[in-house]
Design goal:
It is a single chain. By secondary structure, the chain is mainly α. It has one domain. It has 4 helices and no strands. The longest helix has about 40 residues, at about 75-115. The model has no long low-confidence stretch (mean pLDDT about 85).
Length: about 120
């Protein structure tokens, strides 16, 4: 239950504060909005991957080892492999998609005013 709830709650909270922090840090930077969106998307993907895989390893080491046919000692290596392969790809895709989708919003508002 904790694996299903805690990461999903934190995925909403942590990227919000990362976005606010990056915006304040780069106040004078022309593309601060795009930068803060990209980094907060990366933070959200990272939080989700780390917490889900971390909790899975913490609470279900033996069952996870049985599922992927590894001894209990090899599960941590498996988890790290998933984090570094799937997690990095997820962070990149998240940054691209979130930035693209949320960057369209000001354009749509501009078009509404012109109509």
């Amino acid at each position: 239950m904790i694996i299903a709830i805690v990461p999903r709650i934190l995925v909403g909270i942590i990227p919000y504060f990362v976005c606010k922090w990056i915006s304040k840090l780069f106040q004078n930077f022309k593309a601060k909005h795009t930068l803060s969106l990209s980094i907060s998307a990366i933070a959200g993907a990272l939080v989700n991957t780390l917490f889900v895989m971390g909790f899975a390893g913490l609470f279900f080491t033996e069952k996870l080892g049985d599922a992927v046919t590894l001894p209990a000692g090899g599960v941590m290596g498996f988890i790290l492999t998933v984090i570094f392969t799937n997690g990095i790809a997820e962070m990149i895709v998240s940054a691209v998609i979130v930035t693209a989708v949320l960057s369209i919003k000001p354009i749509l508002k501009m078009n509404e005013r012109q109509i």
